[in-house]
Amino acid sequence: MDYSSVIQGFSVVLQPENLLYCFIGVLVGMLVGVLPGLGPAATVAILLPITLNVEPVTAIIMLAGIFYGAQYGGTITSVLLRLPGEASSVVTVFDGYAMARDGRAGSALGIAAIGSFVGGTVSIVALTFFAPFVARFALDFGPPEYAVLALLGILLVASVGSGSRLKALVAAGLGLLLATVGRDGFTGAERFTFDSLALTDGIDFVPIAMGLFGLGEILYNLEDRSGRATAPPKMVRALPSKDEVKQSSGAIGRGSVIGFLLGILPGGGAVLSSMAAYAYEKKRSKHPERFGQGAIEGVAAPETANNAAATSSFIPLLTLGIPANATIAVIFGALLIQGVTPGPQLITEHPDLFWGVVNSMYVGNILLLIMSIPLIGIFVRILRVRGTILAPITVLITLIGAYTVANSVFDIMLVCVFGALGYLMKKFGFEPGPLVLAFVLGSLLESALRRSLILFDGDPSGFVTRPISGVLVLALVIVVAAPALRALMTRRQNRAKNEELV
Amino acid sequence: MTTTFRRLGAVSATAGLVLLTAACGGNLGSKSAEEAAENFPDGPVTLTIGQDPGGSTDLIGRALAGPVSDDLGVSMPVVNRPGANGALAAKELESAEADGQSLMVINMSLAAITPLAVSEDQAVDVNDFEIVTGISTDDYVLVTNADNGWSTIDDLKNAGKTLSYATTGVGTGSQLSSELLFKLAEIPGKAVPFDGGAPALTAVLGNQADVASVQLGEAMPQIEAGKVTPIVTFAKERNQYLDDVPTAVESGYEVEVQQARAIAAPKGTPQEILDELKAAFDAAFETQAYQDFNTDNLLTPNEVSGDEVVEQWTTALDRYRELTEEYDIDLGGGQ
Amino acid sequence: MSASHEARTPEELAEQWEAEKPPAAGPLSTAAAAAVVVLLGAAVMVASFRLGVGSVQQPGAGLWPLMIGAFLVVSSTVLVLTARRFDDAERFVSSSWLVLVGLGTMVLFALVVGTIGFEIPGAVLAFVWLRFLGKESWRLSTIGAVAMVVAFYLIFVLALQTPIPHLF
């Protein structure tokens, strides 16, 4: 490959004017992305018009800024208010909010910014060197591979969260059920829609997540025990300490790799990556019980992974012309407007544009890090507002935010319903986390499974004979069997010991 | 202290009611038809898109909104109201005020194909709207992975196996065109529905599905890169951007399916307003920027009058209904 | 917050949260919740058969929901049977009715926002939460409610131009 255009591209991107636009993009993206309901896709769509009146290169750089800012904006609400803006920051809620409650919101947001930066940069570097190569591997992921991957993800769900496994499984089942609501994409049959046209496309992720996590928590806190949630948590520090950074460095490194690899897969890669990174950290931790109680690795791993995945999901877009998720689809549209047609020919025929896009991602990522650190203090101050005042603000943001997702009053009602459900689940000792995660993966699992069955003519052995899905099935078996095997081993060891004693 | 605030509350409640009846400045107002026609455009004209941001319908709407708003002299916010392939937005438009302030970009497949796949009360009838103008058409093209070495329908027939064809979903032109072609050409096949054009195309690129019927704009980069081979297009005439590929009709199979888009207004919108809107859209169609947009996205202009759109779509629906009955095709998968 | 909140190690924290936990409701509450899910799962299974299960070659619309329904029935039946082991459910307390009030204001908002815009129900909601649920002063509640609505108007209507129904 010819890398001279890479270097040349940088001289364009680094012009002060372009940097200024990128700066504005990050700032605006972050400010709008912080509003719950406005996830990255919606944020980029809303802010799209402001990029239309500037030069194409500048517009693309600004878009990159908006993209990263919007991604990070979702993290802020996950940590501070327990309102994940999009599916890939759901797991951040677990430990991020626990840290915030404990006065360590600054550490959580800081480590998320650092992790996002590292993950994003690792991904861009890898994208720079391997994009065309890895694109080919992404195409080998068909329905069977996704089916196994999603199943693996859902099995990991049970290990996420801190409550009982059985209750987590029941909650996950409910999540899968909720994901079936809507018009069936295979037969056109209406499933559990109760003749409501508003439900034909199923339930959106945002009202479920905002209702169960956000409103559920606020309603629960109305019971007002021991002033736990109403008193502003004492700030310990605005930024992560050296120890905390050290503690999370491994998680950030592993999160980068997991995020990069899964993000390449079109469809659901970013969501899977944050869950996989979290589950993996929990698994390899010596104190898995800390997860869900404010473990900094539990913030660092998923936040690194989802930003790495968000970045590497540009690979299928730029090299194959396939938008991997809603946010990338909006960016796709924006690039088309700027005269960049992402696709297999972009890199060969318009290397300048290709590298323009890639280089602006470097810049956007760096600016995000530079800007988020000083802003964290300001955002964290939100938490010092009295709980009794913060609560109605959060409720109103949630209700209005739920509306803005699809401009639908119906979604406001949905978010109330899920708020009530979230409260009840909490009262009855069920964690909402597994429900939301299973919901996110549910439709992916079902459609991939059904597509595979159609393609295999109903013969399930196809899952094993295809090379990639075969390996994934093996991984699945190991995940299921490992705990059982371990139990068996310890029992045998104990018996051996006992025999020795005898 | 307490009483003061109670009184204040009462005052503000009354004020609220007064404002409510006056409906000043908000987006909830209502007025008579004559009033509407006289005052049009009275504030922003909302253009609703029944699909997610980023898709081709969305891009078209956004490309038009700019120049149209320049011509009308009011802003034209583009609002995405995704759901049920646009049916949700259409149902909302039906009940909107017929004053020309709310419009939507309506898809032909919603009015001419989806009714064959869903229950009657969910079907959208183009006659329930005033159509302001046609916009453009987008052709479906049947593609296969270049590695397969197939380039004609006969190649598909001689493949010697049941072919899997990826469609972009239930009740879409993609599904109808491939179902019809496979039936008419007597090729053994099985449908694999995906959620949209990109995943269907990916399945062909990854060789998980044998062929896919997708919109030309989506397939073109892959066709140009030689990754997929176009077999036929499903329009009446050859597509101007792909004129060496035959149509299905030329290949001997009467399959004619297209995607088209139009601007719809609520039924009963006064004719003066419709005329004013049509003129504004015509002016937008004339701009160089919009014409470049069409070329970039491989769209064929179909800037006909509203009546013509209704005529085109109604005919298409009748014809599709006949064909699906004749060949015993069930788009709804056994409903 | 109390001085004990200086607890920094995860173990201390967990202990502290444990101490702050509300009264447990006992296993019966878990069993009841699980029984509801069993019924739900059974209903889903019935509905799935009606949707059509199809075959393995051509899975119908009901196949997947049927599997989920069965999973729900099995897992929650196990939960009912082992409910004795769970003490993580919480009893409803006298202040639980506040939750109902809070939820009521939200539902009210959802019901009327389409017809009269978000300003009035938003202000009402904010006021109720501040004054009655939050026990703030009348002054702060009134000013707060108005200020919140104005701020939301500025952000969502003027700055972002979202089509949220608004009166003004």
UniProtKB/TrEMBL annotation, chain A:
Keywords: Membrane, Transmembrane, Transmembrane helix
Keyword Glycoprotein belongs to the record: no
Domain DUF112 residue range list: 19-437
Transmembrane segments: 20-48, 109-134, 146-162, 168-186, 257-280, 317-340, 360-380, 412-428, 468-488
Superkingdom as given in the UniProt entry: Bacteria
Listed PANTHER family: TRICARBOXYLIC TRANSPORT PROTEIN
Official protein name in the record: Tripartite tricarboxylate transporter permease
Source organism of this protein record: Aeromicrobium camelliae
Lineage: Bacteria, Bacillati, Actinomycetota, Actinomycetes, Propionibacteriales
Automatic annotation (TrEMBL), chain B:
One Pfam family from the record: TctC
Superkingdom as given in the UniProt entry: Bacteria
Signal peptide range in chain numbering: none
Matching SUPFAM superfamilies: Periplasmic binding protein-like II
Protein family: Belongs to the UPF0065 (bug) family.
Descriptive protein name: Tripartite tricarboxylate transporter substrate binding protein
Lineage of origin: Bacteria, Bacillati, Actinomycetota, Actinomycetes, Propionibacteriales
TrEMBL record, chain C:
Pfam family, one: TctB
Biased composition (Basic and acidic residues): 1-11
Sequence ranges assigned to domain DUF1468 in this UniProt record: 33-165
Organism superkingdom: Bacteria
Region (Disordered): 1-20
Name used for this protein in its record: Tripartite tricarboxylate transporter TctB family protein
Organism: Aeromicrobium camelliae
